[in-house]
Amino acid sequence: MRDRISELLEEVSKLSAENAEQLEALRIKYLSKKGEISSLFNDFKNVAADQKREIGGLLNELKTKATERIAEMKAEFEAKQAQADAPDVTRTPDPIEVGTRHPLSLVKNEIVDIFSRIGFSIAEGPEVEDDWHVFSALNFPPEHPARDMQDTFFITRDPDVLLRTHTSSVQSRVMTSQKPPIRVLCPGRVYRNEAISYRAHCFFHQVEGLYIDKNISFADLKQALLYFAKEMFGEQTQIRLRPSYFPFTEPSAEMDISCNICGGVGCAFCKNTGWVEILGCGMVDPAVLEACGIDSKVYSGYAFGLGVERITNLKYRVKDLRMFSENDVRFLEQFKSAY
Ligand code: PHE
Prior knowledge:
Blueprint: H1 2-13, H2 20-31, H3 36-43, H4 52-85, H5 103-116, E1 121-122, E2 128-129, H6 131-134, E3 162-163, H7 168-177, E4 182-191, E5 203-213, H8 218-233, E6 239-246, E7 249-258, E8 275-284, H9 286-291, E9 300-307, H10 308-316, H11 329-332
Parallel strand pairs: 1-4
Antiparallel strand pairs: 2-3, 4-5, 5-9, 6-7, 7-8, 8-9
Helix pairs in contact: 1-4, 2-4, 5-8, 5-10
């Protein structure tokens, strides 16, 4: 018996297991009720009385050693497992998708930035408007086609509740609530009842500008617009003003810039003319100033309005307007800019 005990003591000191199952097998082999050590305890009754003390001591030692060794290995496995379960702080994190700004926002921000450098501040107003701010204050005669159901979305049966068709409505609000000098930019979404195609949509975005003070002339308007065109499209850009008509400006003009795609020599985008139209403008009609409570004998002003989609097309060559509102991330994630 003594030999068997020392054999087992030797064995136990060298126990090793590769995984939890092997360890459990060892525990069963040595420590379970039918295990090696238990059977030695069972045989203990046969040990001669004078040796019981010594053999008993050895047996207890064996049992303690085996129990300790197995507990030690168990602790090692548990520590290893805990390590495997813990987050690996050295791992590269999953790439986090950060969004990009919408191209229309980028361009709007750039336009706002350019005009803010010459003193314009931002004014905003509601998209659901009344007839007065969108049309009447701006000198639209009652029978003007823009008021027609064809163009304007009405919100209720009452024709006085409608979606603004231009952000000039914000200009009416500013003129009635502030005293000149007024120098504001009105960016925002506008709505028109148009069939949706690659070149038209039922909503789009504008930035309109308004400057009212004493002695404002058409030359001031032209200078501001030339500055804008060069800042937006580059120093080589030229502008051209063509006479036009808007109910709220007199005289009125439309502004073209030299086509920045072909450099003015003619291409499909500018229909071989070398010029592309980008905005409408003019001197604020005295009737509009008066309607909004501004003395037209003392003050004059200019206004302009441009389409953000149009400028974005020119800048980024987006061929289909509908892409701006489809929220396809493959399209949107291409736009990275300082704005
Ligand atoms: N409000 C006009 C439009 O929506 C643009 C414009 C603004 C024209 C200011 C002249 C002056 O088409």
